[in-house]
Write a structure and sequence with these properties.
alpha/beta, 8 strands, about 20% strand, globular
């Protein structure tokens, strides 16, 4: 789905993600107590909409690693982040099995990734992330949550809260908080639609 979708949208649409990135970055910073000194891994970084704000706020001891499966998005992210001139790297990966290459990190972000993946891929992500975490690592993922069945489209995944919690717990992680997630693209929400939720996960 992801490769198909990104292959269809225009460069302008990818570039516009920087405007949406700021409020998302601000939410993540608050949840993770980000102050620019941490090592950040952005799983599914896309065109750098959030990454730009991370890199722009880095302190000398901090770093940012963005990974994605779509080279076109990474090319835009590299153009966007390079003028900032701080400690960052971008990598094309095949899947979450490649995460072991990037060492221990303090914050992991997976924004708008698992709204487009079955729960099995989320579990695979957590399994493969184990060697990249330490006892204080904060993992931030968002999901579309509902307590009844939705048939929105054949590309979006909606989960029950207990399904996500069960996957997290059975793999030896903890759910620290579940928070409302405010995405600029979903500014209009109604009671008959799934709710955007952010899960703060710790080892």
């Amino acid at each position: 789905y992801y490769l198909f979708y990104l292959g269809k949208i225009s460069g302008n649409e990818l570039t516009n993600t920087i405007e949406q990135g700021r409020p998302l970055f601000e939410q993540i910073s608050k949840i993770a107590n980000y102050d620019g000194t941490q090592k950040v891994l952005d799983f599914g970084c896309g065109a750098g909409g959030i990454g730009y704000h991370f890199v722009n706020s880095l302190q000398p001891s901090g770093s940012y690693v963005g990974v994605d499966i779509f080279g076109g998005a990474l090319a835009i992210a590299r153009e966007r982040l390079s003028p900032v001139g701080k400690s960052f790297s971008l990598h094309l990966i095949n899947n979450s099995k490649d995460l072991c290459k990037f060492g221990k990190v303090d914050i992991v972000v997976a924004q708008s990734v698992f709204t487009h993946c079955p729960i099995e891929l989320f579990e695979e992500f957590l399994t493969n992330l184990r060697n990249s975490t330490h006892e204080k690592t904060k993992i931030i993922c968002n999901f579309a949550i509902a307590e009844k069945d939705f048939n929105i489209s054949n590309i979006d995944y909606v989960f029950r809260r207990t399904t996500v919690e069960s996957s997290i717990n059975k793999l030896g992680y903890n759910v620290s908080e579940i928070l409302d997630w405010k995405h600029p693209a979903n500014s209009v929400r109604s009671a008959d639609k799934p709710k955007d939720c952010c899960f703060l996960i710790t080892p």
